[in-house]
Amino acid sequence: MVYSGDASPLGDLARLAAGADMLISECSFPSGWETEDHLNADSLGKIAQQAGVKALVVVHVYPPALAIDLIGQIRKHYQGPAQLGIDGLRLSL
């Protein structure tokens, strides 16, 4: 399992998460939102796909990303299991 805090789309998260059973990662913004210190739906989807993670849990989501179908945007790049991490969520590996 790999758990990421704030991340850069230009960082090494894909390498760190390579082959992980689960990636728990921030995704603060929807697709197209440019930022250097957080991920958007496109960058997280590409990282999850490149890393070949078996499951993705999305956390640290800002209001603009909560207002849209964030998981749907992520699925444009990553087709594996993905869900929003909400308070009280229990996960099993």
Tell me what you see in this structure:
- There is one protein chain.
- This protein is of the alpha/beta class and 93 residues long.
- The chain has one domain (2-84).
- 26% of the residues lie in helices and 14% in strands.
- It has 4 helices and 4 strands, in the order βαβαβααβ.
- The chain has helices at residues 13-16, 41-51, 63-66, 70-74; strands at 2-3, 23-26, 56-59, 82-84.
- A 4-stranded parallel sheet has the order 1-2-3-4, with no helix packed on it.
- The chain is globular and about 30 Å long.
- The termini are close together.
Structural class call reads alpha/beta
Average pLDDT level: 96
Major beta sheet, strand line-up: 1-2-3-4
**Portion in beta strands:** 5-15%
The helix/strand order is EHEHEHHE
Shape: globular
The number of domains: 1
User: What Rg, in angstroms, do the CA atoms define?
Assistant: 12 Å
Low-confidence stretches: none
Q: Total helix count?
A: 4
Measured as a percent range, the helix fraction is 25-40%
Largest sheet: 4 strands, parallel
Number of strands: 4
Distance between the termini: 8 Å
In short:
This protein is α/β, with parallel strands linked by helices and 93 residues long. It is 26% helix and 14% strand. A four-stranded parallel β-sheet has the order 1-2-3-4, with no helix packed on it.
